[in-house]
């Protein structure tokens, strides 16, 4: 067999293998599954892909999680998108921790914050770990960040509900959201860009609500 023919066959074989892998539908996906029976929502699930696309689903619980919100978010079931840099950090953390095939829970006596189950599945393997509080700073930080993203999405749902049923309540809610975005309690404002754009352009809401929406949109673009 000539060298040229051998190279051609090798290239063709690699192309077929790559096509088969692509056609298998296997791509990296990371999921955080949160549950806390005493909170509302009592359960939510956030799924992310490396390109920043994802999905969020939540179920109402028995009572509001705290007194900071004027209205509970309805059940949420929608596609979302985070920015690429955030998604890259999420998947990099998974790779740094053996795709979550590690012990996450600290077993320390700390306040219950809700169970967070991190799961990874992809062509390079899969793994799952679950924790309330982790001694691993990177794992704990990842859980905090993903919880903050969920908080943002839920805030967006609250804003949508208030715009329809209680426009005056947008004043308090947008004030809270600006404060929470400043201290990190909510992250990835880009996930609620649509409702913020509606508020920024709606002359039927308070001027300070429109102004805060514009401030938050600037954060989403940053």
Explain this structure to me?
The protein is α+β, with helices and mostly antiparallel strands and 222 residues long. It has one domain. Helix content is 45%, strand content 18%. The protein is built from six helices and six strands. It has helices spanning 3-23, 84-96, 137-165, 170-183, 193-201, 207-221, and strands spanning 29-35, 43-48, 53-59, 76-81, 115-122, 125-131. The chain has a six-stranded antiparallel β-sheet, with helices on one face. A hairpin with a 2-residue loop joins β5 and β6 (125-131). α3 (137-165) packs antiparallel against α4, α4 (170-183) packs parallel to α6 and α5 (193-201) packs antiparallel against α6 (207-221). The chain is globular, with a radius of gyration of 21 Å. Residues 3-24 have low confidence and may be disordered.
Briefly summarize what is shown:
The protein is an alpha+beta fold and 222 residues long. The chain contains six helices and six strands, in the order αββββαββαααα.
